[in-house]
Design brief:
- This protein is an alpha+beta fold.
- Helix content is 34%, strand content 33%.
- Strands 1, 2, 3, 4, 5, 6, 7, 8, 9, 10 and 11 form an 11-stranded antiparallel sheet that branches.
- A hairpin with a 6-residue loop joins strand 8 (276-289) and strand 9.
- The longest helix is centred in the first third of the chain and has 58 residues, at 2-59.
- The chain is rod-shaped and about 175 Å long.
- The mean pLDDT is 79.
- InterPro entries: LEA_2, NDR1-like.
- Residues 180-275 form the Late embryogenesis abundant protein LEA-2 subgroup domain.
- It holds the Pfam family LEA_2.
- One of its GO terms (biological process) is defense response to other organism.
């Protein structure tokens, strides 16, 4: 019986021991949870402090290089920075890049495309090409046809019914008969004369005018043209009357000028030019005045005239 009671007491003591050990184990587990919680809280605080330090460092001025970097010893690394260009960095040096990064795209902007400027250039090029083509065609026609002005010559001039009066006003009465020889020197062009107007002058003073009939000149043709001018008691400036009287008394001659203006057109068998104004000037036609002073004739023979357009 004694052994049974001992056995029961041993079992009870072992139960007590296990219960006490279990309570100790629970206390140790709770202590471990507390320590783990404290460690996590401490690590969170440290990470927040590091982040705050990095943000303050990025907003401040760039770090100064240490003496070890200048003397060639390895540098303690460069703080992280944004590298949008993607250039490779060199570790262990005092510079963030192996080479300077390229300039951003806005340093070399692409200029906008202007369609109006291109259209203007095209129109200008078309106009230039058009004028070049027209000039080439005109030059070729000129080489083929070789147009030349007609030749005008005064063969004779006669003065009649010549009278001057200076009082009470300056008046002139006279009649001029002029004979021209007109020659067309062109081998391939005919000349059409329309609306021929003729004028007689003393220096710049117009004395009389007339109209001549139109005519056509064929190639290598020569035509005689006559013009008759008449005036009766026409008013002229005083200086003109004084000049005519002075020349007649001192030299016995008076110089007159004749001008022709005609609307002409050159024409070939396959080509026709537009109308132009032909100007003919026959100057210094010296007329010897007769002894009675009422008439005179051309002195010095035929005179060539200047022709132009």
């Amino acid at each position: 019986m004694k052994s049974g009671s001992d056995l029961m007491s041993l079992v009870g003591s072992s139960r007590y021991f296990l219960g006490s050990e279990k309570s100790n184990l629970m206390e140790m587990v709770s202590d471990f949870d507390l320590v783990l919680t404290l460690v996590l809280v401490d690590s969170i605080k440290k990470s927040q402090a590091v982040k705050a330090k990095r943000s303050s460092t990025s907003n401040s001025k760039p770090p100064q290089f240490s003496l070890s970097t200048i003397t060639g010893y390895p540098a303690p690394g460069y703080p992280p920075s944004n590298n949008p260009s993607g250039c490779a960095t060199t570790a262990g040096t005092g510079f963030p890049y192996a080479a300077p990064p390229p300039r951003p795209a806005y340093y070399n902007p692409r200029y906008p495309y202007y369609p109006r400027a291109t259209l203007f250039r095209r129109l200008l090029a078309i106009l230039i090409a058009f004028f070049i083509i027209c000039g080439t065609i005109v030059f070729i026609i000129w080489l083929v046809l070789r147009p030349r002005f007609p030749d005008f010559r005064v063969d004779s001039l006669s003065l009649s019914n010549f009278n001057l009066s200076s009082s009470p006003s300056s008046l002139i009465s006279a009649k001029w008969d002029v004979r021209f020889t007109v020659r067309n020197p062109n081998h391939k062009l005919s000349i059409f004369y329309d609306h021929i107007n003729a004028y007689v002058f003393y220096k710049s003073e117009s004395l009389s005018d007339t109209t001549l009939p139109p005519f056509v000149q064929g190639t290598r043709n020569q035509t005689t043209l006559r013009a008759s001018f008449a005036t009766a008691s026409s008013y002229v400036d005083d200086w003109a009357v004084e000049g005519i009287n002075g020349e007649r008394k001192s030299h016995g001659t008076v110089n007159f000028n004749v001008r022709l203006l005609s609307r002409v057109r050159f024409k070939a068998s396959w080509w026709r030019a537009r109308h132009r104004i032909l100007s003919v000037y026959c100057g210094d036609l010296t007329v010897g005045i007769s002894s009675n002073g009422a008439g005179g004739t051309l002195v010095g023979g035929a005179r060539e005239c200047r022709v132009g357009i």
